[in-house]
Task: inverse folding
């Protein structure tokens, strides 16, 4: 509690030096090199965008729960062990300096930052997590908005390598649907066993203007139908009372 009081007093001193009387007007706050081990809640600094707390002895970051407009946060050279549950609400954060701390869990650290769409500059070197295998690729893959990591630009080659390392299945799918890479083939036609169907055309003598197609298929259902040549009958057949039956051809297909 005593440390928090000292921190609060130092903040007041800094504001007095700059001639600031109202905390809601503070845009940038410089509190570096003060040996702080704890920082009071900064909820009264609604307009705070830039905060300098580097070169202190801070163990945890629990003082920004109500500061949603922070864009730059300088926390390097402290004793921070974890940032889990402390920064994910800072949707406007663009620059985050966390190098030379004691971060030991890469998964929880990355999870806290992975949904920050505006974060483009991040320093994590000098932490135990930076010694892990494929550390840089892991961070690049999980925080795709990054442009600068540990003072080095994030290249397209690194991004592609990170994706192939941590999401190989997604890469295979993406490669398969690229233009010109996938061959679309028609499905094969399944042929039935047996001889092909035979089609016969016959000319009926009684009906010179007509022809009948006979199709014989193996194991087909028997069928029959009758055929008249209406052109040879004329109107007399329709209106005559003493008419003879017309020629009829019945064809059976089996």
Result:
């Amino acid at each position: 509690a005593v440390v928090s009081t000292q921190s609060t007093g130092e903040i007041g001193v800094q504001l007095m030096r700059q001639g600031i009387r109202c905390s809601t007007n503070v845009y940038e706050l410089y509190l570096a090199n003060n040996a702080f081990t704890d920082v009071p809640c900064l909820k009264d600094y609604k307009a705070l965008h830039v905060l300098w707390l580097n070169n202190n002895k801070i163990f945890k970051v629990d003082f920004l729960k109500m500061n949603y407009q922070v864009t730059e946060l300088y926390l390097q050279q402290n004793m921070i062990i974890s940032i889990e549950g402390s920064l994910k609400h800072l949707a406007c954060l663009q620059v985050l300096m966390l190098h030379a701390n004691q971060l030991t869990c890469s998964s929880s650290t990355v999870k806290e930052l992975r949904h920050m769409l505006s974060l483009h500059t991040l320093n994590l070197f000098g932490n135990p997590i930076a010694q892990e295998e494929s550390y840089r690729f892991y961070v690049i893959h999980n925080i795709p908005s990054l442009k600068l990591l540990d003072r080095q630009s994030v290249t397209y080659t690194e991004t592609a390598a990170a994706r192939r390392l941590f999401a190989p299945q997604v890469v295979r799918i993406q490669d398969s649907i690229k233009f010109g890479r996938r061959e679309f083939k028609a499905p094969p036609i399944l042929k039935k066993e047996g001889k092909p169907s035979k089609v016969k055309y016959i000319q009926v003598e009684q009906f010179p203007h007509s022809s009948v197609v006979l199709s014989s298929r193996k194991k087909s259902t028997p069928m029959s139908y009758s055929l008249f040549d209406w052109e040879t009958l004329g109107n007399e057949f329709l209106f005559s009372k003493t008419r003879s039956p017309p020629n009829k051809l019945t064809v059976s297909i089996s």
In short: DSSP finds six helices and eleven strands in the chain. The first strand starts at residue 28 and ends at 30. Confidence is low (pLDDT under 50) at residues 1-5, 210-217.
